[in-house]
Amino acid sequence: MTEKFDAIIVGAGPGGSAAAYSLAKMGFNALIVERGKYPGAKNVMGGRMYAHALNRFMPGFWKEAPIERMVTREKLTFLCNEASVSLDFQDGEFREPPNSFTILRANFDQWFANKAVEAGATLVPNIRVDDLLWREKKVAGIIAGGDKIEANVVIAADGGVSLMAEKAGLKKFEVKQFALGMKEIIELPEKTIEDRFNLAHEEGAAQLFIGQCTKEIPGGGFIYTNKTSLSVGIVVYIDRLIEKKIDSHEIIREFNENPVVSKLIEGGKILEYSAHVIPETSRSRLFTDGMLVVGDAGGLVVNSGITLRGMDMAIASGAAAAEAVKNAMGKNDFSKECLSYYEDLLRKDFVLKDIATFNKAPEFLQNDRLYTLYPEIACRLFHKLWAVDGAKKRAFDELLEGTKGNRTNMILDLLKGLRAL
Ligand SMILES: Cc1cc2nc3c(=O)[nH]c(=O)nc-3n(C[C@H](O)[C@H](O)[C@H](O)COP(=O)(O)OP(=O)(O)OC[C@H]3O[C@@H](n4cnc5c(N)ncnc54)[C@H](O)[C@@H]3O)c2cc1C
Cα–Cα distance between 70 and 62 in angstroms, integer? Predict the structure, then answer.
């Protein structure tokens, strides 16, 4: 290719496609280069997308997008070996406007990238971008498959372990900044899913698990219901996994074998297994001369323990990057000073506001007691409340006895949790 593009986007995940779609809609000449055979081929995700970010520039997108189910039921389960305690929340208000949808990335990413192509962007799949092209110490394009392709701005949307952000000197990687997400897609009949999760037709559930399932490593398990499959997985901090010398496959196998989980997935057929890193605290600088960084590549992920949000962050940051390119094109200025407008947009929007709000969450979520002691206390307490053994005590006395020796830590953790989450 000898043509110079207004923008080259590296990666056709949600961040890259949002940037390309928005740029193409504004009439700019945008190229997306994706290393997968097709967008989504290499992408893994727990399977829930919060709708608000995409709905802003594609209102009612779910009417045509390949969504699986609208999530109307949220469940949080504390797991012990023999017992579990669940909080089950249903809300009709999650239907209008829809709060979140379960999706399968292979389908969703292809659809979204095709929307960018329909709007006028050029998509080149199956090509890995190897390097950045530099002119006078400024990013001036990409090098892919031996070709040099020029652009006014390169948008790095290449995910959590962003080669582009690293090559531009915007990011240094440390293992402790990342979590590992492992996921299986387990096929089950539609009716079985609706019966097991108590769902009406096309409604979906998201169930999170804390406790025994991560073998004392900070993290959690999840199940999201798709139309005819479940997305089942575990997210754990990588450094703790290494420290404890635990095989990641063992964790997911034990999770599937837990009596609570095994009933939900029983009879299902594993269609797919995948694993991917999540940049929990791996922030990157977001711009330099001739380059912007969006989505996971910039570490724009929020994990509040109850919600894991990377997709809406990627989509909103991709759209903001397109705005920043438009501003730079108007001024014919692609310097970092001019492109810093991107970060101003993210600060005014929910992206950097939510990251700031939850900036204490990753540290709080590293507390081992959340995954060991507290699920145990909850299970023991509820056991005592329901067991009838001739030695009944009042609920308050059971609570006092069950928390004996741990109350100071519990109060401190509660206060920290309230501040962090
Ligand atoms: C197990 C798991 C569960 C998750 N659950 C949720 C959830 O429920 N909800 C949620 O919102 N988020 C979730 N996330 C996070 C979410 O997946 C990410 O935040 C989101 O995908 C980020 O989008 P992105 O476009 O920035 O990057 P990605 O989706 O990672 O896309 C990057 C793209 O760049 C391509 N690429 C990479 N390098 C190159 C290269 N050199 N050349 C060309 N192409 C390249 C990749 O193939 C990929 O298509 C989860 C993540 C994991 C791992």
Answer: 9
| CB of 301 sitting under 6 A from ligand 1 | yes
Instruction: Specify the pLDDT at position 305.
Output: 79
Nearest atom in ligand 1 to the alpha carbon of residue 12 is 49
226-238 b/e (C-beta count within 10 Å ≥ 16 → b): bbebbbbbbbbbb
Query: C-alpha distances in angstroms, 211 versus 84, 214, 221, 255, 292?
Result: 9, 7, 9, 10, 39
Tell which one of 101, 105, 224, 278 to mutate to probe ligand 1, the residue whose CB is within 8 A of the most ligand atoms: 278
CATH number for 189: 3.30.9.90
Ligand 1 near 156 CB (within 6 A): no
Q: Measuring from atom 31 of ligand 1, which residue has the nearest CA? A: 13
One-character DSSP codes across 117-147: HHHT-EEE-S--EEEEEEETTEEEEEEETTE
pLDDT tens for each residue of 13-37: 999 999 999 999 999 999 999 999 9
Question: Which residue range(s) make up the domain with 111?
Answer: 5-66+104-173+282-348
Domain count, the chain: 3
Instruction: Give the model confidence (pLDDT) of 392-415 as tens digits.
Output: 888 888 888 888 888 899 889 888
